[in-house]
């Protein structure tokens, strides 16, 4: 039986779409190796000094035991890299929003008092995303946000966005000793990150945001209407219960 066809209409923006930068498998493997080497000290610190949460009940059960321990016992300081990375899509997205809305002039912040505060708000140099295996709705906003955030700091090198495969997520999780890692934001001036950042900047292109320049022209653009031809599935017949 021949299936019936129908036309479906979809509205689309008239401006150019922002796409993810392309990365070859060879360069991706090199970037992943450099990134895991950089993150390894953080993972070692977490595996020794950070206890994985086992739920609220476990915390209540151990609360009395913790109070009996000596208060003199303190954890050693975490690696300096800890304050230069953000882990998680929410944290990275939030900082990109801050970069876009609160960009500062590089001529300001010359005093010693500002340096410690400014270190916490350093812009990103590279953002790594385990893109495969995630719906586009979760990370599809990143190319546009990265491009806008980079334009907020014209005096700095544009941020690079690296999309990694699904298999890379497991290695990142192992390196950081975290059950799941989908996104990592590496800030500028991060210690021991020079090799990784330089290699990424050489092999990952800058994100172009052509629609922003198109919008500045203030020209009327008609909405794109996409037409898609699809087939109509056959309706399933409902089974009527026999009333006795």
Question: Can you describe what's shown?
Answer:
Mean pLDDT is 79; it is low at 104-120. This protein has a four-stranded mixed sheet, with helices on both faces. Strands 1-6 form a two-stranded antiparallel sheet. The protein has helices at 25-49, 56-68, 89-101, 112-119, 136-139, 142-151, 166-176, 194-203, 210-216; strands at 4-12, 85-87, 124-130, 160-164, 183-187, 224-232. Helices cover 41% and strands 16% of the residues. The two termini are 36 Å apart. It contains nine helices and six strands; from the N terminus they run βααβααβααβαβααβ. The chain is α+β, with helices and mostly antiparallel strands and 244 residues long. The longest helix has 25 residues, at 25-49. α1 (25-49) runs parallel beside α7 (166-176), α1 runs antiparallel to α8 (194-203) and α3 runs parallel beside α6 (142-151).
How many helices in DSSP terms? Answer: 9
Q: What can be said about the biggest beta sheet?
A: 4 strands, mixed
**Strand residue content:** 15-25%
Number of strands: 6
Give start-end ranges of low-pLDDT stretches.
Answer: 104-120
Radius of gyration: 25 Å
- What is the element string, with H for helices and E for strands? EHHEHHEHHEHEHHE
> What average pLDDT do the residues reach?
79
**In whole angstroms, how far apart are the ends?**
36 Å
Shape: globular
Helix content: 40-55%
Features:
alpha+beta; 6 strands; two-stranded antiparallel ribbon; 4-stranded mixed sheet; 9 helices; 244 residues; 16% strand
């Amino acid at each position: 039986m021949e299936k019936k066809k129908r036309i479906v209409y979809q509205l689309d923006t008239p401006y150019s779409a922002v796409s993810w930068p392309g990365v070859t498998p060879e360069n991706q493997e090199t970037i992943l190796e450099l990134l895991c080497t950089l993150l390894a000290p953080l993972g070692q610190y977490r595996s020794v000094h950070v206890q994985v949460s086992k739920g609220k009940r476990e915390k209540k059960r151990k609360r009395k035991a913790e109070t009996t321990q000596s208060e003199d016992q303190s954890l050693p300081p975490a690696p300096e890299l800890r304050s230069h990375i953000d882990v998680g899509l929410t944290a990275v997205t939030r900082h990109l929003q801050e970069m876009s809305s609160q960009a500062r002039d590089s001529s300001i912040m010359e005093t010693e008092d500002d340096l410690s505060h400014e270190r916490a708000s350093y812009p990103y140099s590279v953002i790594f995303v385990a893109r495969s295996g995630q719906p586009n709705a979760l990370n599809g906003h990143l190319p546009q946000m990265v491009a806008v955030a980079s334009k907020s700091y014209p005096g700095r090198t544009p941020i690079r966005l690296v999309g990694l495969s699904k298999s890379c997520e497991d290695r990142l999780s192992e390196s950081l000793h975290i059950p799941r890692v989908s996104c990592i934001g590496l800030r500028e001036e991060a210690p021991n990150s020079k090799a990784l950042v330089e290699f990424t900047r050489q092999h990952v292109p800058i994100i172009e945001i052509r629609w922003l320049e198109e919008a500045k022209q203030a020209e009327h653009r008609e909405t794109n209407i996409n037409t898609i031809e699809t087939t109509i599935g056959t309706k399933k017949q409902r089974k009527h219960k026999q009333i006795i």
